[in-house]
Every structure is written in structure tokens, then in C-alpha cells.
Amino acid sequence: MASSSRRVTQQDIARMTGVSQTTVSMVLNEREDAARIAPETRERVLAAIRKTGYVADPIARRLAAQRNRFLGVFTYEPVFPAGLGDFYHPFLVGIEECAESIGCDLLLFTSAPVVDGRRRIFQSDNRLRLADGCILLGRWLDPEELARLLAEGQPFVSVGRRDDAGGPVPYVGADYPAATAALVRRAVELGHRRIAYVGEGAGAESHADRLRGFNAAAAEAGVTGAHVRFTEAREVMDELLNQEVTAIFVEEFADGAMLAEEAGRRALRVPDDLSFLALGDPTRPASTDLEFTGFRIPRREMGWQAVEVLSAILDGTGGELQRLLPCEPVTGATLAVARA
């Protein structure tokens, strides 16, 4: 079998099945003269194609140019995000606008199988090579798939910072540590000495980055910074009040809305009795009339710059392949002076 560190070719398929490269090409392209190929031979070739995940490279078919000027967009989310209110929509707008500005079309990869609630690039075959390069979207990206993309030399850029995966991963992300730390300092300036981070703070890099910024700023200010994972709003509020927390930093906007509603049921006023700070935009529907203090993620700009980085990779022009963009502070109305 061909090495997994390079692209599988028609010659590899031919060697595996004991036929000529011409035969492989005839089967792949379903040419009219393919009818003279024995059914068992045709099936043997198709089985090898399925086994290796071979995808015919359209770039090689176009001798007049080195690139198709097709950029792929792949999301690990089970349903491709397209709604105007969807968290991912601004990313897609930025991707589309930048692709248009450099004269590229977009291919949306939507047929990848869903395994354990997430799409997979490498499952039955890898269709990403239909594009010159690919933008990857998703809160969590599979490190093993990222490592394989790097090993096989497939051009891609992640929207969102990613840890190394056998090598540096090209990305355009949001500077969550700096944005979260800035909010902690604002709360401390208003007299908050017992603060809490509510959320996972682990798993996805975006969560870990937020908690890292929170912990660093709390330690620097010399205040008590608790970490509480969100379960039920009532249970979380019990724990926060037992710890005499006065400012709550929520990883997920919707969790903050539920906690604020729970605070209201206990006759606690926001922000007079309890302050809330949202560490980003809503990723799922949230019902609240509160204008949360926090920050916005530069989603549109992240999408735009991801295409810029991918274009630089494809053109071989170099430049910064890992970028962190500042988040936009939101004054809001849920942070006040700490109660005495």
C-alpha cells in the first residue's frame, strides 16, 4: 500500500490491483470504453480506491494552471451552519468575502459522515483534495486528523487557535486569554475580590484559553478565582453563593442567561448584588433581556484572515501562519461595583 505520508496516486492503485494505470483511469472517469473491462476487475479497482481514500486530483488534470482557485470549507459540526443567527454565520461571511476578493470560489464539504456527533475528514475517503486548500471550522477539531493533514502536506487553515498536532497548525484565532484577563482586571478595579469562572475550561482550545486568561489575571491581582463547571443553574448558583462570589465569568453566554434568571428567582439583582461577564458571543439560543458585559469575538475578520493565510500558503509567499486577533470589549450593563 502507498505510504500514508503522501498522496495516493493512480499508479499506486494500479500496482495494488495488478492492472495498468490506463485501466484505473478508465474506471475512475467512467469512459465509454470502460465497458470492456471485466466486472471483477472494475470492482477490484473500486475496492482499492475505497480502501486508500484516493481522490482524483483536479489540479493535476488542469495542465494550464497550478491551481483550480477553489477553496474548501469544512465544518466539524453535524449540520452546516447557514442561518443568519447561527454562531458560525459571520465566519462564513468573512470567508466568502475574502475568497471573492482574491478571485476564488468556495466548495462547501457537507457529505462527510458524522461519527460520535462530529463530521470526520478521514472516514471512507478524503474529498478535501478537490479544493486547492481548505478552511476548517468547528469548536473542536480532531488532533489526529490535523496531524494527518500536516503529514500529508494538505494545505489548510483552522479558524480558531489549535494546539500543535505533530507540528504547528496554521490558524487564525481570537485572543481569548487577553480578552478574559482584561475583564478580570475591570472587575477587580470595581472591588470584586471573589470571582468565579463558570464553564468547562478544558477540551476545546477556546475554553482552555479563556480559563488560562482568567486564572493568570486573578493570580496577578491577588483575588480568589474559583472554577465551577456548569451543571444545573440552581446547583451552580448554590455553590457560587456559598463561596461568596460577587462576579461570575461565564464561558457560555446561554449559561450566563440561565444563571442570571436563577439569581432573579432568589431576589438577587443584576448587577447590584451579582455581576455577570460573558466571555464571547452566544453559541446557542439564549433568552434574556440583559445586556451582558463582556467581549465579542471577531468572527467575520477571523474568516477573512483565514482565507488570507490559506492563500499565502498556496502561493508560497510565507508570512505569519498563526494569528491571534483582539476581541471587542462590550461595556454592557451587568458589571457594577462589588456589594459590601
UniProtKB/TrEMBL annotation:
GO MF terms held by the record: DNA-binding transcription factor activity; transcription cis-regulatory region binding
Family matches, as CDD domains: HTH_LacI (cd01392), PBP1_LacI_sugar_binding-like (cd06267)
InterPro entries for the chain: HTH_LacI, LacI/GalR-like_sensor, Lambda_DNA-bd_dom_sf, Peripla_BP_I
Keyword Protein biosynthesis set for record: no
Short name of any one Pfam family annotated for the protein: Peripla_BP_3
TM spans (from-to): none
The keyword Magnesium is assigned to this record: no
Source organism superkingdom: Bacteria
Residue span(s) of domain HTH lacI-type: 8-65
Keyword set, alphabetical order: DNA-binding, Repressor, Transcription, Transcription regulation
Protein name per Swiss-Prot or TrEMBL: LacI family transcriptional regulator
Organism: Actinoplanes italicus
